[in-house]
Amino acid sequence: MAKTPRSRKMKLAHIEECFVRLSDRLPDPKTELTYSDPYTLLVAVVLSAQATDVGVNKATKGLYAAADTPQAMVDLGVDGIAHHIRTIGLFNTKAKNVHRLSQILLDEHDGQVPEDRDALEALPGVGRKTANVVMNEAFGHPTIAVDTHIFRVGNRTGMAPGKTPDAVEVELVRRVPDGWKKGAHHWLILHGRYVCKARKPDCAECVIKEFCLYKDKTG
């Protein structure tokens, strides 16, 4: 797949207009993961690594019916967690991580999900991307979690070119206007998932195509 040259960057004024248009299409963007509070969001995001949101939601439906608090999850045990999430990838490792992080929340955070990046990243199975999602979705911080979709959109459009997800994150945080940062993660991930797709972007349906620097547009 041809890429936008990393030296080419979308104009800042055009980034502003991109989010105006994306927000017009989807005024209140949200994660597609099913959750009811910061804890169930945290668990869902941990489970979503190398898995689809649809697959995670199917797995967590039964899991949360059995355990939707840290104490209940610890009581369920690793094997019990694994049973409910066995349909998603790496379920044994994820079950151990969910059990352990639940115990840590009880031991160190009074059973609450901390509103702190360092504390989140200290939990098993929680990296920078997961912490960013929780900080943004659960607590309203203007963080931008970069997954494969956002990495692709940032590079392909020229909005935030970078060789690594962290580099793209830095560019997005630097270049996206403050007023759009809260929803930027969701707008970009949904745009990458449904329009700016990996193998064949649906450029004919793209509301920001006139600002996109991708050379091989499909229409």
Describe the overall structure.
The chain folds into two domains: 12-30 and 143-205, Helix-hairpin-Helix base-excision DNA repair enzymes (C-terminal) (Endonuclease Iii, domain 2, Orthogonal Bundle); 38-137, Hypothetical protein, domain 2 (Endonuclease III, domain 1, Orthogonal Bundle), CATH 1.10.340.30. Helix content is 57%, strand content 0%. It has ten helices and no strands. Helix 1 (12-25) crosses helix 10 (178-194), helix 2 packs antiparallel against helix 7 and helix 4 (70-84) packs antiparallel against helix 5.
- The tally of helices reads 10
Biggest sheet features: none
Q: How many β strands by DSSP?
A: 0
Low-confidence sequence ranges: none
The oligomeric state of the chains shown is single chain
Which band does the percent of strand residues land in? under 5%
According to CATH, the homologous superfamily of the largest domain is Hypothetical protein, domain 2
Helicity level, as a percent range? 55-70%
Which overall shape is indicated by the principal axes computed on the Cα atoms? elongated
Rg of Cα set: 18 Å
Q: What is the string of helix and strand elements? A: HHHHHHHHHH
Could you say how many structural domains there are in total?
A: 2
Highest-level CATH class of the largest domain: Mainly Alpha
Task: Walk me through the topology.
Layout: H1 12-25, H2 38-47, H3 53-66, H4 70-84, H5 91-108, H6 117-121, H7 128-137, H8 148-157, H9 165-175, H10 178-194
Helix pairs in contact: 1-10, 2-7, 3-4, 4-5, 8-9, 8-10
